[in-house]
Amino acid sequence: MSRRGWLLFIAMGVIWGVPYLFIKVAVEDLTPVALVFLRSVVAALLLTPIALARGQFRSLSRSWRPLLAYTIAELAVPWFFLATAEQHISSSLAGLLLAAVPLVGAVLGWLTRSDRLDWRRGAGLLIGLGGVVALVGLDLDASDTGAVLAMGVVAVGYAVGPFILDRRLSDAPQLGVVAASLIITSVIYAPVAAFQLPRQWPPVDATVSVLVLAVLCTAIAFLLFFALIAEVGPTRATVITYLNPAVAIALGAVFLDEPITTGIVVGFVLVLAGSAIATRRSRPAAPAAPEKSTVESAPS
């Protein structure tokens, strides 16, 4: 990986390890729908004028179908399910469960035949899955099943989004894609949010959380994420989730007094080890040996 790729990787790993803390804080006072709406609206207000000034919307009409699919996979659905899950589980646990995103990305690469899934990578998937199972079995009970399923939806969405971006929107203006996706998400959630937004200004901690999520974790983060995908590709870009859970666990422990349990430690090690193995590039298949001639040499 190039130096630029490493810098983008570290920056994204830290920035997208932050949202879990602020989502956990925000859902204490806001519904998931209201949070997604406010986050997308504020970020859209920041990025849309810049995109308009640069003419980044002009060519998007030809790509409206993949743009809508990307918006649903990367923003509209995952953000809602993530906020819903964090009403029931800790921010550190949510961050760790999403370390499984590279595992989903590896499966997608195999299903779409864009990457090989050899025995080593298959073993990595099993190790990572074992980490998720250990985490769920040690830290959660039956009442948390809905939250775990919600996090599974988030993981799939976060893996599918980069694939759509790379395959169908790679030639589209990046800033225009971000801004348009935020606008679409705002429109999707506006009808319900109109009835769920607080009638009074939310507390300071909730307000700050929304602003951090919108400005740092959305507007700035997506620009950096697009640059990372362009630098290292969609599958490797999802490997930022190696660093995300460490940041989420640390922030949850320091600011929310969330315990670092045995399940978190075991799950962290297994999921990250499995993801690292599963997302390593497969070696190209060895060229086939030339067929033996059907005409044998005459004995001397």
Give the tally of structural domains: 1
Count of DSSP-assigned helices: 13
Helix content: over 70%
* Number of DSSP E strands: 0
In terms of quaternary structure, what is this?
Answer: single chain
How is this fold's topology laid out?
Elements (H helix, E strand, L loop, with lengths): L2 H13 L3 H8 L5 H22 L10 H22 L5 H7 L3 H11 L7 H21 L5 H24 L5 H23 L7 H29 L1 H4 L6 H12 L6 H17 L22
Helix pairs in contact: 1-10, 2-5, 2-10, 3-4, 3-9, 3-10, 4-8, 4-9, 5-12, 5-13, 6-8, 6-13, 7-13
Written description of the protein model:
It contains 13 helices and no strands. It has 300 residues and is mainly alpha-helical. It has one domain (3-278).
Name its key features.
71% helix, globular, 300 residues, single chain, disordered C terminus, mainly alpha
Quick recap:
The chain is mostly helical. It has helices at about 5-15, 20-25, 30-55, 65-85, 90-95, 100-110, 120-140, 145-170, 175-195, 205-230, 235, 245-255, 260-280. The termini are far apart.
